[in-house]
Amino acid sequence: MSIHPLVGHTGERTKVLESLRLGRLPQLLLLTGPEGIGKQRFGLWLAQALLCEAPDHRPCGTCRSCKLVLGLGHPDLHWLMPVARPKASDPDKQVEELAETLGQVVAERRKNPLYQPADGLAGHFMATARLILRRAALTPAMGRQKVFLVAEAERLVPQEANPEAANALLKLLEEPTADTVVILTTQDPNRLLPTIRSRMVQLRLGRLPDHLVSDFLAERLGLAGEELQLRTRAAAGSIGRAVTLGEDEAKAHRAADEFLAAVVAGAGTRAERALKQGPFAARGDFTAMLDALAESLGEAGRASTGLAHRGALSEALRRPATLGALVQAGGRVQAAREAAQGNVNPQLLLAQLADDLAEVLCA
Fold first, then answer.
1. What is the pTM of this model?
2. DSSP secondary structure string, 281-346?
3. Which of 43, 63, 121, 126 is the most buried (most CB within 10 A)?
């Protein structure tokens, strides 16, 4: 199975292809941006463009190299994702174990190409740097270049007692061979060693428009109707987040939307909504709903200041509201969230919160 098409980032793609056409594409590129927006997929697209056999219009998508990249099988593409620390004690055996593990991860990606976040204990260890240096010393197997795509490069540091893995990688970054391109991805470039960051040319990728997220979810996951709208809004411009969004989180956002609709509908509807709240759900579903509510108010606050918000707003929050009112509303939600941790009746707490929000949002 081929990986899914790259979604969005058309402006960045145009700049990269123009640099490639002029022969000015940096050998060391750092892709930054929020989680789940397609940094690794962009890196694979760039690798496809670099390895494409077509004289122009790269990546063509039809040549042998393009097809191999899309099938994650090109011998000159080296995709290194965070994995568990190798168990072997011998350095050479650690590299062999790592290569086998990465092969298994790539094989799994062929079966399920959709975004899968790395395990919290996974990382890039000394074996990763040794594997990169070993492969970088080889000549390209098929094309003119070798491409190394290191995902979540910030994990070169936090999982180590010292930054040995990152420092070892510096050997390649200081003097990369002419046939080597290194692409690192990270959410936060400040989590990389300054010595690595200073050698990379940064390209920041932004969040995706809602319509692109919605189209992807409809086509790839078969979502439609209310569920599609909910996932799109909760994704906040991140397809990765939309894909991994669990049913519990989706349920929390749905409950927050219903609660906000009740807040603006009037006193009777607010009371009715409060009575529907389970009396013994002070934790779990109830607090998850409050978290989703705080997130929705935060997005509305961004919109009220003219900033681009990261997802479609709840219908109840599309009515005019000042930033001050939204900040007050967020404070009331936070106070309710803290109170929910104690021995309180969620129905009474929600009734009070509904009245408080109506006071500041409907004034």
1. 0.74
2. -TTTHHHHHHHHHHHHHHHHHHHHTTPPPSSPPPGGGSS---HHHHHHHHHHHHHHHHHTTSS--H
3. 43
